[in-house]
Design brief:
InterPro entries: Acyl_CoA_acyltransferase (IPR016181). With about 120 residues, this protein is an alpha+beta fold. The protein has a single domain, classed as Aminopeptidase, CATH 3.40.630.30. It contains 4 helices and 4 strands. It has a 4-stranded mixed sheet. It starts with 6 loop residues before the first helix and ends in a 14-residue tail after the last helix.
Length: about 120
């Protein structure tokens, strides 16, 4: 974040974003897969978990950002994200996006496997 390279950064320019949410911020990019490999939210959860482990092993991470459709923003809430802004237009197009954010602790807890008593299991020993 803060390099004006991503779609989400372009959308951030259109509404106020608390600077604290940008500290050690990373954008969660697009996940594209053929329809025959799509198997629902649990598969997305596994992909996000693997990406988060890799990112945390290789960079300092505090905040995660993304832009998506309103429908997908509801799915991402399951994974610890919350909506920062809705219906943000992409300049020069007819498209609008929902911009979401998740603090690393919230996203990690939401993605972590659950123990039999419902407590998150840590990624690391």
């Amino acid at each position: 974040m803060l390099h004006n390279l991503t779609l989400t950064e372009t959308l951030h320019a259109q509404f106020p974003v608390d600077a604290a949410l940008l500290t050690h911020g990373w954008e969660v990019g697009r996940l594209v897969m053929a329809p025959e490999f799509r198997s629902g939210p649990e598969f997305l959860k596994q992909c996000l978990s693997l990406a988060l482990i890799f990112l945390c092993d290789n960079a300092q991470v505090e905040n995660l950002h993304a832009s998506c459709s309103h429908v997908l923003s509801r799915l991402y809430r399951r994974f610890g994200f919350s909506v920062l802004a809705k219906e943000i237009p992409l300049p020069g197009t007819e498209k609008t996006y929902t911009v979401i954010h998740g603090h690393i602790s919230q996203v990690s807890n939401a993605l972590a496997p659950q123990s039999p008593i419902g407590q998150p299991i840590s990624y690391r020993a």
